[in-house]
Amino acid sequence: MRLRVDIRATAVYRITVGVARALHRVRVEGVEHVPREGGVLLVSNHASWFDGPLVLSVLERPVRFVVDRRLTQQPALAWYLAQMRVVLISAEDPPRQLLAGLRDVRTALSAGEIVCIYPEGRLTRDGRIGEFRAGFEHMVGGMDVPVVPVAIRGVWGSFFSYRYGKPMAHVPRRLRPHAILRFGAPLSTRTSKDEMRRRVVALAHASNKGGSGEGR
After folding, report:
1. Which of 188, 185, 182, 177 lies closest to 207, judged by CA?
2. What is the pLDDT of residues 104-160, one digit of tens each?
Protein backbone atom coordinates (compact mmCIF):
# COMPACT_ATOMS: atom_id res chain seq x y z
CA MET A 1 0.00 0.00 0.00
CA ARG A 2 2.81 2.39 0.88
CA LEU A 3 4.49 1.73 -2.48
CA ARG A 4 1.23 2.48 -4.27
CA VAL A 5 0.88 5.79 -2.43
CA ASP A 6 4.48 6.75 -3.26
CA ILE A 7 4.00 5.91 -6.95
CA ARG A 8 0.79 7.96 -7.05
CA ALA A 9 2.42 10.96 -5.35
CA THR A 10 5.40 10.76 -7.71
CA ALA A 11 3.08 10.67 -10.71
CA VAL A 12 1.15 13.72 -9.46
CA TYR A 13 4.43 15.57 -8.86
CA ARG A 14 5.73 14.85 -12.38
CA ILE A 15 2.43 15.80 -14.00
CA THR A 16 2.47 19.08 -12.04
CA VAL A 17 5.96 19.92 -13.30
CA GLY A 18 5.05 18.94 -16.85
CA VAL A 19 1.93 21.13 -16.86
CA ALA A 20 3.87 24.09 -15.45
CA ARG A 21 6.43 23.81 -18.24
CA ALA A 22 3.74 23.35 -20.88
CA LEU A 23 1.77 26.42 -19.82
CA HIS A 24 4.73 28.78 -19.29
CA ARG A 25 8.05 29.67 -20.87
CA VAL A 26 10.25 29.59 -17.80
CA ARG A 27 13.56 31.31 -17.16
CA VAL A 28 15.45 30.82 -13.92
CA GLU A 29 18.20 32.98 -12.44
CA GLY A 30 20.32 32.33 -9.37
CA VAL A 31 19.23 28.74 -8.87
CA GLU A 32 22.76 27.97 -7.72
CA HIS A 33 21.82 29.74 -4.46
CA VAL A 34 19.59 26.80 -3.53
CA PRO A 35 21.75 24.18 -1.76
CA ARG A 36 21.76 20.71 -3.30
CA GLU A 37 21.15 19.09 0.07
CA GLY A 38 19.96 19.92 3.57
CA GLY A 39 17.02 21.91 4.84
CA VAL A 40 16.20 25.14 2.99
CA LEU A 41 13.42 27.68 3.47
CA LEU A 42 12.31 29.47 0.29
CA VAL A 43 10.53 32.79 0.86
CA SER A 44 8.64 33.92 -2.23
CA ASN A 45 6.18 36.53 -3.41
CA HIS A 46 2.78 35.18 -4.51
CA ALA A 47 1.71 36.33 -7.96
CA SER A 48 -0.47 33.50 -9.28
CA TRP A 49 -2.05 30.16 -8.41
CA PHE A 50 0.70 28.48 -10.44
CA ASP A 51 3.65 29.83 -8.44
CA GLY A 52 4.21 26.51 -6.67
CA PRO A 53 4.37 24.37 -9.82
CA LEU A 54 6.70 26.94 -11.39
CA VAL A 55 9.10 26.65 -8.45
CA LEU A 56 8.99 22.86 -8.75
CA SER A 57 9.71 23.09 -12.48
CA VAL A 58 13.13 24.74 -12.01
CA LEU A 59 14.48 22.83 -9.01
CA GLU A 60 15.96 19.34 -8.98
CA ARG A 61 14.80 18.72 -5.41
CA PRO A 62 11.21 18.23 -4.17
CA VAL A 63 9.63 21.17 -2.36
CA ARG A 64 6.98 21.18 0.34
CA PHE A 65 4.73 24.25 0.30
CA VAL A 66 2.97 25.93 3.19
CA VAL A 67 -0.65 26.21 2.08
CA ASP A 68 -3.78 27.78 3.53
CA ARG A 69 -5.81 25.04 5.19
CA ARG A 70 -9.06 26.49 3.85
CA LEU A 71 -8.17 25.22 0.37
CA THR A 72 -8.85 21.68 1.57
CA GLN A 73 -12.57 22.48 1.71
CA GLN A 74 -12.62 21.48 -1.96
CA PRO A 75 -12.32 17.66 -2.04
CA ALA A 76 -10.41 17.39 -5.33
CA LEU A 77 -7.94 20.08 -4.28
CA ALA A 78 -7.57 18.49 -0.84
CA TRP A 79 -6.60 15.18 -2.51
CA TYR A 80 -4.08 16.93 -4.76
CA LEU A 81 -2.50 18.84 -1.86
CA ALA A 82 -2.18 15.61 0.11
CA GLN A 83 -0.24 14.03 -2.77
CA MET A 84 2.06 17.07 -2.80
CA ARG A 85 2.71 16.71 0.96
CA VAL A 86 1.97 20.34 1.69
CA VAL A 87 2.00 21.79 5.20
CA LEU A 88 -1.42 23.16 6.09
CA ILE A 89 -1.61 26.33 8.15
CA SER A 90 -4.29 28.99 8.42
CA ALA A 91 -4.43 32.27 10.30
CA GLU A 92 -7.80 31.08 11.58
CA ASP A 93 -6.33 27.94 13.16
CA PRO A 94 -6.68 27.59 16.94
CA PRO A 95 -3.34 27.98 18.78
CA ARG A 96 -2.71 24.26 19.16
CA GLN A 97 -3.29 23.56 15.47
CA LEU A 98 -1.19 26.56 14.46
CA LEU A 99 1.70 25.35 16.60
CA ALA A 100 1.38 21.89 15.06
CA GLY A 101 1.75 23.44 11.59
CA LEU A 102 4.84 25.37 12.66
CA ARG A 103 6.32 22.17 14.10
CA ASP A 104 5.67 20.39 10.80
CA VAL A 105 7.73 23.04 8.99
CA ARG A 106 10.59 22.79 11.47
CA THR A 107 10.50 18.99 11.30
CA ALA A 108 10.68 19.06 7.51
CA LEU A 109 13.61 21.49 7.56
CA SER A 110 15.43 19.42 10.19
CA ALA A 111 14.93 16.35 8.00
CA GLY A 112 16.74 18.12 5.15
CA GLU A 113 13.72 19.07 3.05
CA ILE A 114 13.00 22.27 1.12
CA VAL A 115 9.99 24.22 2.36
CA CYS A 116 8.49 27.18 0.48
CA ILE A 117 6.28 29.85 2.04
CA TYR A 118 4.45 32.93 0.74
CA PRO A 119 4.63 35.39 3.64
CA GLU A 120 2.18 37.82 2.02
CA GLY A 121 -0.47 35.30 3.04
CA ARG A 122 -2.48 35.63 -0.17
CA LEU A 123 -2.23 36.19 -3.91
CA THR A 124 -1.47 39.75 -4.96
CA ARG A 125 -4.52 41.68 -6.14
CA ASP A 126 -2.60 44.50 -7.83
CA GLY A 127 0.66 42.97 -9.03
CA ARG A 128 2.65 44.47 -6.16
CA ILE A 129 4.41 42.60 -3.38
CA GLY A 130 2.42 43.08 -0.19
CA GLU A 131 3.63 43.30 3.38
CA PHE A 132 5.18 40.14 4.80
CA ARG A 133 3.67 38.51 7.85
CA ALA A 134 5.88 37.38 10.70
CA GLY A 135 5.01 33.67 10.44
CA PHE A 136 8.25 32.58 8.80
CA GLU A 137 10.26 34.17 11.61
CA HIS A 138 8.54 31.82 14.07
CA MET A 139 8.98 28.85 11.74
CA VAL A 140 12.76 29.05 11.65
CA GLY A 141 13.62 30.92 14.86
CA GLY A 142 16.75 29.41 16.41
CA MET A 143 17.37 27.06 13.47
CA ASP A 144 20.52 26.96 11.37
CA VAL A 145 19.12 26.64 7.84
CA PRO A 146 19.57 28.90 4.81
CA VAL A 147 16.64 31.17 3.96
CA VAL A 148 16.56 31.85 0.22
CA PRO A 149 14.51 34.80 -1.12
CA VAL A 150 12.62 34.12 -4.35
CA ALA A 151 11.00 36.55 -6.78
CA ILE A 152 8.44 35.33 -9.32
CA ARG A 153 7.47 37.66 -12.13
CA GLY A 154 5.97 37.54 -15.59
CA VAL A 155 2.84 35.73 -14.43
CA TRP A 156 0.85 38.79 -13.35
CA GLY A 157 -1.84 38.95 -16.01
CA SER A 158 -1.82 35.21 -16.63
CA PHE A 159 -4.92 33.01 -16.43
CA PHE A 160 -3.94 32.13 -12.84
CA SER A 161 -3.62 35.70 -11.49
CA TYR A 162 -6.07 38.35 -10.29
CA ARG A 163 -5.20 40.96 -12.90
CA TYR A 164 -8.41 40.50 -14.91
CA GLY A 165 -10.61 39.30 -12.09
CA LYS A 166 -10.90 35.99 -10.29
CA PRO A 167 -8.17 33.56 -11.40
CA MET A 168 -9.23 30.92 -13.93
CA ALA A 169 -12.56 32.71 -14.43
CA HIS A 170 -11.64 34.90 -17.39
CA VAL A 171 -10.46 34.44 -20.94
CA PRO A 172 -6.64 33.98 -21.06
CA ARG A 173 -4.94 37.08 -22.50
CA ARG A 174 -1.59 35.39 -23.01
CA LEU A 175 -0.59 31.91 -24.09
CA ARG A 176 2.51 30.50 -22.42
CA PRO A 177 3.59 33.69 -20.60
CA HIS A 178 7.27 34.22 -19.88
CA ALA A 179 7.76 33.37 -16.21
CA ILE A 180 10.98 34.46 -14.52
CA LEU A 181 12.08 32.94 -11.22
CA ARG A 182 15.01 34.61 -9.51
CA PHE A 183 16.68 33.14 -6.41
CA GLY A 184 18.80 35.34 -4.16
CA ALA A 185 21.75 34.60 -1.92
CA PRO A 186 20.84 32.68 1.26
CA LEU A 187 20.10 34.71 4.37
CA SER A 188 20.16 33.94 8.07
CA THR A 189 17.10 32.76 9.97
CA ARG A 190 17.55 35.93 12.03
CA THR A 191 16.56 38.06 9.01
CA SER A 192 13.47 40.14 9.80
CA LYS A 193 10.32 39.98 7.70
CA ASP A 194 10.83 43.56 6.53
CA GLU A 195 14.39 42.90 5.40
CA MET A 196 13.25 39.70 3.70
CA ARG A 197 10.58 41.61 1.81
CA ARG A 198 13.19 44.18 0.70
CA ARG A 199 15.33 41.37 -0.68
CA VAL A 200 12.43 39.82 -2.59
CA VAL A 201 11.39 43.21 -3.99
CA ALA A 202 15.00 43.91 -5.05
CA LEU A 203 15.08 40.57 -6.87
CA ALA A 204 11.82 41.38 -8.62
CA HIS A 205 13.18 44.75 -9.76
CA ALA A 206 16.46 43.21 -10.91
CA SER A 207 14.46 40.85 -13.09
CA ASN A 208 12.27 43.66 -14.30
CA LYS A 209 14.60 46.08 -16.01
CA GLY A 210 11.93 46.77 -18.59
CA GLY A 211 9.99 48.64 -15.91
CA SER A 212 6.51 47.06 -16.21
CA GLY A 213 5.86 47.75 -12.55
CA GLU A 214 5.19 44.13 -11.70
CA GLY A 215 6.40 43.16 -8.24
CA ARG A 216 6.88 46.66 -6.90
Report:
1. 182
2. 999 999 999 999 999 999 999 999 999 999 888 888 989 999 999 999 999 988 888
Query: Which pLDDT tens digit goes with each residue over 89-114?
Result: 988 889 999 899 999 999 999 999 99
Name the pTM for this structure. 0.90
- Least confident span in 22-31, 180-189, 198-207: 198-207
> Phi, psi (5° rounding) for residue 64?
-105, 130
Domain covering 2-206 assigned CATH 3.20.20.370 in the classification: no
**Long-range CB contacts (< 8 A, 24+ apart) of 77-85?**
80/12, 83/8, 83/9, 83/12, 83/13, 84/9, 84/12, 84/13, 84/16, 84/52, 85/9
Contact criterion met (CB below 8 Å) for 55 and 116? yes
